[in-house]
Every structure is written in C-alpha cells, then in structure tokens.
Amino acid sequence: MTRIAVAGAGAFGTALAVALSGSPPEDCRVTLWGRDRAGMARLAATRETARLPGLRLPPALTVTADPEALAADVVLLAVPAQALRGFLAEHRAHLAQAMPVACCKGIDLTTLEGPTRLMAAALPRSRPAILTGPAFAADIARGLPTALVLACADETLGTGLQRLLSTPVLRLYRTADVVGAELGGALKNVIAIACGACIGGGLGESARAALLTRGFAEMRRLAIALGAEETTLMGLSGLGDLVLTATSEGSRNYRLGLALGRGEGFDPGVTVEGAATARAALALGGRLGIAMPVTAAVAGLVEGRLTLPEALRVLLDRPLRAEI
Fold first, then answer.
1. Which residues bind sn-glycerol 3-phosphate (predicted)?
2. Among 158, 160, 70, which residue's Cα sits nearest to residue 122?
C-alpha cells in the first residue's frame, strides 16, 4: 500500500489531502499531518475546519499530529516557504526514505533558495519535486476542475508522481524544469501584491494590466538568468498562476496589496508568501545585475519604506525605452 502524507494542515494542505482521499488511487492511504496536537485532535473529531468553511473531511482521510506519519512513501510539504528549512531540519529522520514534493511557493530569505534546493540539502538521498500552478485551496477541496504542474528532474519519478497524485478533477501536467516551475510560483506572488496595491489605491484596471505585464517580464528575466526555460514561465506555473493570483481576492497576496493600497492594516497571522519573496527576489536580482523595479516597489511597500504614491513615482520616472 502506498502511503501519502500531507505535511501542513493549512487551507492548501487540507485541500490536497481532501482531494486525494476523496478518490484515492487503488492501494493508497492518505494522512493529513499538523504540528498542533490539540487542533489536529479537534479536526479528527469534528471533521471540519474553519480554514475551509462548509467542508467535511472524507472518512478515508487520517488526521494526526504524530510525526511518525511523515515516514510515508510520498510526503507533500504544504508548510509555508519561510518555515520549510526549519521543518526539514526538525523532521529529517522521518522524511529520510520519502519522496518529498514541495507544495509551497517562495524563496527562502536566508539562503535565497527555493523549496527543492532546500529539500535536496536536507535530504541528500531524495529526488525532490514540486507541485505548483494556478489553484485556490477552496476550489480543490470542493472538487472543482483544476490543473497543476508537477515538476521533477527525474522523468521516471515524475511520471509516477503524476499518475499517483492526479484525480478525475485534479489534472497534473509534468515538466522536468524544476527551476522554472518553482520560480514561476514564487515570483507571481510578488506581482500579485503589486496588482492588489494598484486596485486598492484606485489606480485603475489599465494600470493593473500594465503592472501585471511588466511584472511578468521581471519574472521571466530573473527566472531565465537562474536557469529556467522560458516556455515554462509561459505555462500554468508562471503566467497561469500569475493571472489567477493577480486578479482575484481569493489570493492572500492580492488582498495584502489591496490593504496596502488602501492604507489599511492586514492580519499578521495570515501567511503571505509574496512579502518575503519580494525581498529575496530583489536580493537575487541585485546579485545577478537584473533590474526589478516592480519587485523593488513591492519590497518597499511591505517594509513600510515607500508609500503607494512614492512607489508609483519611482516606476513612472524610469527612463523611456523600447518595450521588448
């Protein structure tokens, strides 16, 4: 029997666990793991979570806080990107024999590395993969049609994971371009914050379209410089994810941008991956000599160094040039 563990009982991890246990492959058992023992005991008893209102967990889904559950065949790591390095260090022994699949989107602020490099460093015998693309947790949990990208450098392993993790309504596309898929998912969150700030500040839909397009150009420049394939950025894990995240209030990154544009506070307890990623991406861009004005404006906004009018002035005062 194949054992699948989902590490991280937030909205996205829970949604993945629900989707996989709702129509599990033959001879497959799915477990949802979270570190909060009291919270996981409550979830196991009630089968309901405030993170996904109106949803009941399928009977086949096991819920636990026991770290032994992480000693599975495949572990989907749905922990926040900035917590991943610490999580891997803490649970290295449990994960030693597993096939790890990152389900978070970000760049570690300390190492300036993405999830798969962090996994490779912590678990040297593993062949890391990443699951990414345009999807909201609520849609996955409700069984709405969704397409994601499974990126793995090992084609045989990637094909096996693609088959294992696909369901009748969760369609996975496969790529060997791990760098491109990883960076597309991380960098689009930064641009989503910019687009939210644009709308929140009353700058209009036309300005948002310009920010989305120029922000996508920044994503491509940095990703290609780091070894990504340009075609990957044009797919689900790049452009597709950007369009979803930069246009919907279902995105926490977009909602943070809205709050910044309106001059409102934002719940500090809500994980917004793009805030830290903006700082990390800006550092990477500086290291490589790549201009990233939209990313710099977002970093300034989230750190409180720039107001929206100041950020806008910086962008509009850039020299006139050809588009491409």
1. 105, 133, 188, 241, 251-253
2. 70
What local confidence, expressed as pLDDT, does residue 25 receive?
A: 57
> How big is the chain by its Cα radius of gyration, in Å?
19
Q: What distances in angstroms separate CA 179 from CA 52, 217, 250, one per listed residue?
A: 31, 17, 26
Q: Which fold has domain 185-317?
A: N-(1-d-carboxylethyl)-l-norvaline Dehydrogenase; domain 2 (1.10.1040)
Compute the distance between CA of residue 247 and CA of residue 217 in angstroms, rounded to an integer.
Answer: 17
The ranges of the chain annotated as CATH 1.10.1040.10 are: 185-317
Read off the pLDDT of residues 146-196 as tens digits, 9 standing for 90 and up: 999 999 999 999 999 999 999 999 999 999 999 999 999 999 999 999 999
List residues forming the annotated binding site for NADPH: 12, 35, 105, 137, 252, 273
Annotated binding site for sn-glycerol 3-phosphate: 105, 133, 188, 241, 251-253
3-state secondary structure at position 100: strand
281, two tokens:
């991406």
d(CA 116, CA 83): 14
Catalytic residues, by residue number, are: 188
CB neighbours of residue 55 within 10 Å: 18
Residues carrying CATH 3.40.50.720, the chain:
2-176
Using an 8 Å Cβ cutoff, are 167 and 20 in contact?
A: yes
